[in-house]
């Protein structure tokens, strides 16, 4: 089947055009969406950057661009970008292979504990992890190792940043690879087996090549996420004097007056450029081959590690549980602590912080409602849009859309604060013709999220399309199915795991988003990220932890509800359901 | 130390001896009470006050001016200024009143001609060094920066200079002036003090001090014992101590540094009466007394400091030339970032 798909691909341009009007209309809508929500801020920023480079600010801007700080930060960005990506790739891939291809137990918990890492706000995770260092240090000092007092937290270093980035973004790789693996045909593995291939050979020669598109897509996502991340390097890098571009940009904006906006734009362009390089690597990889697979889903785990199965499963279970529970417990302990530095006992634990954030702060409830609506809204809208865009890009091979692809990355890779500035400049004034302004409403944050997270949703869907049996789609088209009915009957059922994997990522990322909304919120449109940031910054880290604990509980409830509702959905639609 | 300390005693001496009730009477004549109800509409406040404080301040203001609806944008000074600057760049600043940590950002706005001269203010009770001579911005409270130590610390420094003691190597933490306004003024004052200067700041780096993003992180690490000694704003240390955290606040021998959390009205303000009422409230005896309940030192000497705080008379300040400091702030930050990096 795969070979048939490949041979059909040779005749690229010769696609039978079916119900053209409907399709053209939908293409128009998708393009309109892309233009208004994603390209407008990206192009606007590019124009502003160009102006900054040639306008009256050019001398200062060039000086910044060629300064030692900028070079150092760029080098650091590449280091943590590559390091974090490599870690996320290896960790995410190995985990996905183990959980999907072998009868791993307890699979449900393994997947859940692994995936939820991406949901924890990076700055909270960094905080929780740094706290784990303290008991260790105190223990060593109590043993008489006084010299330990002067040792700084080892996580506040390049390696610490890479470690946390890798753990944090491995679920991006995991989710896309797992969606790819679940689309893997059992027949292919069976065929290889019948031909006498060993499991190792099957893995190397059959499975890995087949999940290459989703692996590379996941790795690319992890790379752009690592170089754009602010929370982790801000927490671990600033004390360790290890600046990356996002923290350098933030520092420029906070430290050096109005003149810093052109500098910030130009430095953001460097981040975007690095991201584009990463994307280029992905393209080179994917040019090597296309693999279409009929999507009879993998039902049973085809492999078994034999005697190694149980021990490996045990080690992995302990490992992911530890990685998840250690920071969570640190967070929980903090949220019930009577005060900083007071040893927590059963007698003195205090619910004051919970009662403050829940009962005495009406912003908390609003923030939950706002963040939930924003994340659900962005996930649903982007899921629908990504289907039509991916259809045009992959099935119709729209050259225009493919050319536009790098621009779609821009709003995601640039620091959130720069995107927020662009949104303010674009939407502060009342909209032309309509006469009202989006500024100070929830809509401006919503639009910013649509721009920022499109690439997160689109990448898994694109790689899903790459695996789709093209002949099946073409047959449907030849027999006159309209685009909408083909979507409903063929494309969506086949691609749903990829779509939900993307939508879940969008939801998780927007639920805890901080850097964009920190500039765009107003009275009544608070977000969770803003609430936690505000409390943390005012020295109320216990109250901030309480909000963190509540939001994680809330997410758990949402995931459970989705699992309940999702029982009737096909396998693999909810990525954490094994 | 050749320069005289600006002591609290002197501040008291500068204040005319007017009783509180008499002052209240002079500020609020009968006619004004009527006017309070007349001030109404929406007021847009941009502030870097902590969440809880901003909420409380607005509530206190609303008990006097119930018809004003205050819409607040609250974030770090950096975010507040970024948002305001972007609005200005787009041609329509939305803030009426600005209430942020330090005077440095206020100076840049003043230089751009963005601030209104607040000729309506009654500044009788407020020492002149707490407000701009042209009255474009005015301090609202006194936030001093000193040394915070963990109670378990083996060595407790008594002066800024003692932070250079090798016994503290690797145990020091401070907020970075690149993110914190209070810290920016602190390094400005340090670098201009004859007995400290830039060699002192370079010595801190050599003693392995780390600079973190904010005061909250400093408190966190000192209270938990991860670092033993830090540079911190007073109210965070006192509030934590009141809750039982093992921290002590030390006034360094050379003197504290301070910021005044200034308030200003933008000259593009859309609701001028409400904006003026709000700033007047902040510096009025009522507003000052309210801010002591949040744990801040008042600017007016005749209002007592919060319970458990050192007597205001005992506060000593590191002397500095405010004008030179504000004008040199950017260069100071650059130099600091050259020494400390991040």
Write a structural description:
The complex is a heterodimer of chains A (578) and B (342). Chain A has 578 residues and is an all-alpha fold. Chain A has one domain (21-568): MetI-like fold (Orthogonal Bundle), CATH 1.10.3720.10. Chain A is built from 24 helices and no strands. The two termini of chain A are 27 Å apart. The radius of gyration of chain A is 24 Å and the shape is globular. Helix content of chain A is 73%, strand content 0%. The model of chain A is unreliable at 1-18 (pLDDT under 50). With 342 residues, chain B is an alpha/beta fold. Chain B has two domains: 15-142 and 260-307, D-Maltodextrin-Binding Protein, domain 2, CATH 3.40.190; 143-258 and 317-340, Periplasmic binding protein-like II (D-Maltodextrin-Binding Protein, domain 2, 3-Layer(aba) Sandwich). In chain B, 41% of the residues lie in helices and 14% in strands. Chain B has helices at 8-14, 20-27, 30-38, 51-64, 77-89, 103-111, 181-192, 197-206, 215-223, 234-242, 272-283, 285-293, 322-340; strands at 41-47, 68-74, 97-99, 137-138, 143-150, 172-175, 210-212, 229-233, 247-250, 257-259, 263-265. In chain B, strands 5, 6, 7, 8, 9 and 10 form a six-stranded mixed sheet that branches. A five-stranded mixed sheet of chain B has the order 2-1-3-11-4. In chain B, helix 4 (51-64) links the parallel strand 1 (41-47) and strand 2 (68-74). At the A-B interface, helix 6, helix 11, helix 12, helix 18 and helix 23 of A face helix 4, strand 2, helix 5, strand 7 and helix 9 of B.
Characterize the largest beta sheet of chain B: strand count, sense, and whether it forms a barrel: 6 strands, mixed
Q: How would the global form of chain B be characterised?
A: globular
CATH topology assignment of the largest domain in chain B: D-Maltodextrin-Binding Protein, domain 2
Q: Spans of chain B of 5+ residues with little confidence (pLDDT < 50)?
A: 1-34
Write the CATH homologous superfamily of chain A: MetI-like
Counted up, domains of chain B total 2
* Rg measurement of chain B, Å: 20 Å
What is the third-level CATH name, the topology of chain A? MetI-like fold
Beta strand % of chain A: under 5%
- Under CATH, the homologous superfamily of the largest domain in chain B reads Periplasmic binding protein-like II
Structural class of chain A: mainly alpha
Number of strands of chain A: 0
The helix-strand sequence of chain B is HHHEHEHEHEEEHHEHEHEEEHHH
Largest interchain contact: A-B, 65 and 68 residues
Mass-distribution shape of chain A: globular
Helix content of chain A: over 70%
From the 3D coordinates, which CATH architecture of the largest domain in chain B would you assign?
Answer: 3-Layer(aba) Sandwich
Average predicted confidence as pLDDT of chain B: 84
The fraction of residues assigned to DSSP E strands of chain B is: 5-15%
């Amino acid at each position: 089947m795969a070979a048939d798909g490949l041979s059909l691909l040779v005749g690229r341009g010769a696609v039978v055009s079916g119900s053209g009007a409907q399709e053209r209309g939908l293409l128009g809508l998708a393009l309109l969406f892309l233009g208004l929500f994603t390209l407008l801020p990206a192009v606007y920023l590019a124009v502003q950057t160009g102006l900054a480079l040639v306008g009256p600010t050019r001398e200062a801007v060039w000086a910044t661009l060629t300064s030692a700080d900028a070079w150092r930060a760029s080098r650091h960005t590449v280091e943590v970008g590559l390091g974090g990506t490599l870690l996320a790739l290896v960790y995410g891939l190995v985990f996905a292979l183990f959980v999907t291809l072998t009868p791993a137990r307890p699979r449900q918990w393994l997947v859940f504990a692994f995936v939820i890492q991406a949901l924890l706000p990076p700055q909270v995770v960094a905080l929780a992890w740094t706290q784990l260092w303290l008991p260790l240090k105190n223990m060593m000092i109590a043993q008489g190792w006084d010299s330990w007092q002067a040792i700084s937290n080892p996580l506040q270093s390049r390696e610490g940043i890479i470690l946390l980035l890798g753990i944090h973004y491995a679920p991006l790789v995991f989710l896309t690879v797992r969606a790819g693996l679940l689309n893997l045909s059992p027949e292919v593995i069976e065929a290889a087996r019948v031909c006498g291939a060993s499991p190792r050979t099957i893995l190397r020669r059959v499975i890995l090549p087949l999940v290459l598109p989703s692996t590379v897509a996941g790795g690319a996502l992890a790379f752009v996420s690592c170089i754009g991340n602010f929370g982790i390097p801000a927490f671990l890098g600033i004390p360790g004097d290890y600046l990356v571009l996002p923290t350098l940009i933030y520092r420029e904006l906070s430290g050096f007056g109005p003149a810093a906006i052109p500098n910030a734009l130009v430095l953001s362009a460097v981040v975007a450029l690095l991201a584009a390089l990463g994307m280029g690597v992905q393209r080179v990889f994917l040019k090597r081959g296309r693999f279409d697979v009929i999507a009879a889903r993998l039902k049973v785990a085809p492999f078994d590690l034999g005697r190694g199965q149980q021990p490996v499963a045990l080690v992995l279970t302990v490992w992911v549980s530890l990685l998840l529970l250690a920071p969570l417990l640190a967070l929980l302990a903090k949220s019930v602590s009577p005060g900083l530095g007071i040893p927590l006992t059963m007698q003195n634990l205090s619910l004051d912080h919970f009662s403050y954030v829940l009962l005495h702060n009406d912003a908390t409830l609003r923030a939950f409602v706002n963040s939930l609506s924003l994340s659900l809204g962005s996930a649903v809208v982007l899921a629908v849009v990504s289907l039509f865009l991916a259809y045009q890009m992959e099935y119709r091979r729209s050259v225009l859309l493919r050319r536009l692809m790098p621009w779609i990355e821009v709003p995601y890779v640039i620091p959130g604060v720069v995107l927020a500035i662009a949104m303010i400049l674009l939407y502060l004034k009342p909209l032309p013709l309509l006469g009202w302004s989006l500024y100070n409403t929830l809509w401006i944050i919503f639009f910013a999220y649509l721009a920022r997270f499109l690439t997160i949703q689109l990448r898994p869907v694109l790689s899903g399309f790459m695996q789709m049996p093209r002949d099946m789609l073409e047959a449907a088209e030849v027999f006159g199915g309209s685009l909408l009915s083909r979507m409903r009957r063929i494309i969506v059922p086949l691609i749903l795991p990829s779509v939900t994997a993307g939508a879940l990522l969008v939801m998780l990322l927007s639920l805890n988003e901080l850097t964009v909304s920190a500039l765009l919120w107003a009275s009544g449109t608070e977000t969770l990220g803003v609430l936690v940031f505000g409390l943390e910054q005012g020295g109320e880290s216990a109250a901030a932890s309480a909000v963190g604990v509540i939001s994680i509980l809330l997410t758990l409830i949402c995931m459970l509800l989705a699992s309940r509702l999702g029982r009737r959905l096909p396998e693999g639609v909810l990525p954490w359901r094994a | 130390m050749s320069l005289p300390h600006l002591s609290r005693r002197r501040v008291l001496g500068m204040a005319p001896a007017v009783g509180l009730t008499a002052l209240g009477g002079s500020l609020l004549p009968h006619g004004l009470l009527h006017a309070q109800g007349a001030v109404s509409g929406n007021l847009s406040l941009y502030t870097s006050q902590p969440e809880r404080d901003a909420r409380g301040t607005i509530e206190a203001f609303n008990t006097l001016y119930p018809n004003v609806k205050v819409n607040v944008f609250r974030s770090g000074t950096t975010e507040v200024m970024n948002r305001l600057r972007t609005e200005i760049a787009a041609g329509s600043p939305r803030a009426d009143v600005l209430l942020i940590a330090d005077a440095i950002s206020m100076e840049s706005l003043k230089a751009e001609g963005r601030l209104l001269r607040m000729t309506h203010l009654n500044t009788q009770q407020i020492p002149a060094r707490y407000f701009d001579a042209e009255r474009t911005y005015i301090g609202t409270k006194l936030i001093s920066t000193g040394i915070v130590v963990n109670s378990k610390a083996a060595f407790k420094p008594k002066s800024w200079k003692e932070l250079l003691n090798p016994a503290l190597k690797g145990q020091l933490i401070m907020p970075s002036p690149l993110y914190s306004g209070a810290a920016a003024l602190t390094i400005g004052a340090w670098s201009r003090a004859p007995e400290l200067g830039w060699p002192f700041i370079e010595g801190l780096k050599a003693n392995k001090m780390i600079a973190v993003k904010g005061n909250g992180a400093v408190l966190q690490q000192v209270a938990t014992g991860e670092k033993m000694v830090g540079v911190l704003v007073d109210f965070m240390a006192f509030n934590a101590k009141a809750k039982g955290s093992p921290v002590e606040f030390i006034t360094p021998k050379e003197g504290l540094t301070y910021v005044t959390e200034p308030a200003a009205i933008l000259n593009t303000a859309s609701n001028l009466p409400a904006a003026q009422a709000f700033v007047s409230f902040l510096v009025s005896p009522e507003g000052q007394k309210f801010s002591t309940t949040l744990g801040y030192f008042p600017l007016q000497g005749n209002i007592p400091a919060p319970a458990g705080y050192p007597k205001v008379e005992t506060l000593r300040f590191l002397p500095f030339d405010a004008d030179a400091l504000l004008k040199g702030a950017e260069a100071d930050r650059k130099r600091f970032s050259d020494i400390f990096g991040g």
